[in-house]
Design a protein that fits this description.
By secondary structure, the chain is an alpha/beta fold. The longest helix has 13 residues, at 344-356.
Length: 645
Amino acid sequence: MTASLQAASPSAFFEAWAEVYDDQPNPILALEERELPRLLPAIAGASILDVGCGTGRWLQRLEAQSPLSVTGCDSSPAMLQRARQKISAATVLHLGAASSLPCFDNSCDLILASFVLGYVDDLSGFAAECARVLKPGGHVFLSDLHPITATQQGWTRSYKAEQGGGRLVAHSRLLPDIVASFAEYGFNLSSLEEPSFDIPERFIFVQANKLADYEKLGDLPAIYLLGLRKKVAETRATVVVKEILELSHAPWSIHSQEWSSDSLLIEDAKVRIGVRSAASDLLDLSGYVLLPGLINAHDHLEFALFPNLGRPPHAAPYYNAVEWANEIHQGYADLIDLHLQVPLDTRLWWGAIRNLLCGVTTVCHHNPIHPALTSPDFPVDVVRDFGWSHSLTFGSNLAEAHRATPEDQPYILHAAEGTDGQSRDEIFELDRLHLLDKRTVVVHGLALTMAEIDLLNDRGAALVLCPTSNLFLFHQTPPASHITAVHRIALGSDSPLTSSGDLLDEVQFLVRSHSVDPVTLFDMVTSNPAAILKITRGQGRIAPGDGADLIAVRDRHVSPAQTMAALTFAEVELVLLGGRVQLASPALYARLSDEQRKGLHLLEVAGHQRWLRAPVPALFASAEHVLGPGKLRLGNKEVRCCSIR
C-alpha cells in the first residue's frame, strides 16, 4: 500500500475493492485472523452482528460455530453481493452504516467490527449504537491498524488492481480515546492485544517481494484487537420506600450463630441500624426473625414448569449427564416440545417465582441473559456479570469464553457430572486446558475424588453442589467428607428437570441424608455464593449499608443457622428485595400498609397461599394456554391462581 494512489470516495473505493478483496493476500488480515479467535467469547448459541462485514470474511467463520443468529451489515452493495455468494441463507445481510445498526435493542451477544473504526466518522454515535443493541454483559470487539505504527510508517487504506487501485482517507484514533468513548456508554475494557507480524505473515511479505518491509517493522505492533463489554447495572432499579421502614420486634441475624435485637430500618433500599424516627413507617414482625435473602448459585430458570425427565427410580442410573441428555431428547421429545411452546419470558418468570417462594432473592441463571431478567420488575435479582460455558461436551470455544471472562468475574460450567471415568477425568482436563483457576466455578462435581478436590482447592476454584439432581440421575450424591473438604463451596437447586424442588429442598436433603452441620449450610446459601459469584450489593448478609434483601420466618428460638437448616418453603412468610415486599403470607399481608400491598397478587402453591409481586393472572393464562388449565407444576409442586372476592 502506498500513498501515491489516487484518493477515492468511500462508495467508489469499496465498489472497486470488492472485485479483488478476496483474491489478494493481506498480512494485516492474516494477522487478525490468527490472533482474534482466541479472544472471542463462546459463539455457540449467541446472536452475532458483524459491522462492516465486507465480503463475508468473518461471517463464514462465525456460521461454522453454531451461533443462534448471524447478521452482517456493510455500506457497500458490492461487498454484500460478494458476501451473499459465500454464506448461509440463514445469515441476514443489511445495507447500512455503523451509525444505525440493523438490530433491536438488547438483542445481540457479540458485535464484531473488523477494520471498520477507521471509516467511522462519529465514534461516539457508533459506541451509542453498540450500547443500544448489545445485551447487558454483551461484547464488542474492534480491530484496526495500530494507530502509532500506522502513523510512523505512513500506512494508508489502499489497494492495487490491474486498473490502478485506490486510496481512502481514514481516521486514526489512539486506543485510550476509543476506550474512553465507549466508557461513556457503559463499556468496560475486557481485553487489549497489540500483535506484531510473525512467521506466518512473513511468507505473505516474501510473496509480495516486500521482505525488507517485514524486517523493518521488527516487533512493532501492526494491529490492535480491542475487547469491550457492556456493563450490567450493579443494582437493580427498585421502587424505593418513600419513608423509612422499621421492621420492629424481629431479631435479625448478624451471622450464622448470632441474633441482634437492635432496631433494623430500611432507607433507600439499604439497611440501617438505629432508632426509629418520627417519619418512619412501621411493620410489626412480632413472632418472626429476619434472615438474609438466600442465594441460589445454580439454576436454569426457563425449566421451572417442567417435570422430572429421566428414568424411574427402580431403573438403572445414568453414568453421566451426556447419556441423560441424549436419552430424554429421544424419549420425551413431545413433552419437551410442548413445554417449550410456553413463551420464554413466561417460563423465566415462573423460574423466578419458584425461587422467590423459598426465600431466594438472588439467582445465578446458567444461560444467556434474556431481557426479561434485567427488568426492574423481575421478582428476584439475577447475577449478570460472569463468563460461562455449558460443559466440556456441549460447549464450544471454552478457552475463548474463559479468556474473555474478566479477572473480577466468575467463569461457570458443568463438570464431573456423572460417575464414570469420563466424568472423573474432566477436572484434570480443565486443568490441562488452563481453565481451572480462581475464576472457575464447577457445577455438580459428583465424580470428584479427594485428588480432584485437592486440585480444585490448589487452583482456587469453587464448587456448586446440586445434590437432589445428582440423586435423581445417578442414585448418589457427593459424600459429606467431600463437601467439607472443598474450600469454596455453594449450593444450587438446578432445574426441576432433575431436582426434587427448590433450594430449601436441597438444604433439607443435606441435613437428613448427610448430616451437614447448620453453619456450613447457612454459609452455602448466603456468604459463600456471594463471594464465589462476586456479587457486591451486600447479598447474603444483613449489615448497615447493604441492600435490604431479607426474609422473615417464624422464631424457633434457635440460632440463625439452625433456623435456616429447618426451613421449608411453607415457612418463608415475607421476602423483601431492596426493601420492597416481594412475597407475603396471608398472616403478614394483613400487617402490610395499603401502599405495600399494591401490585401483590395471590397464588396457591402446594396448598399454601402467598401474595407475590408478579403478574400472576397473566402468567397463568400464558402457561395454561399451552399446558392446559390446572396442569401447572412449579418445581414439582401444584400451583393455582386464586381469585379474590
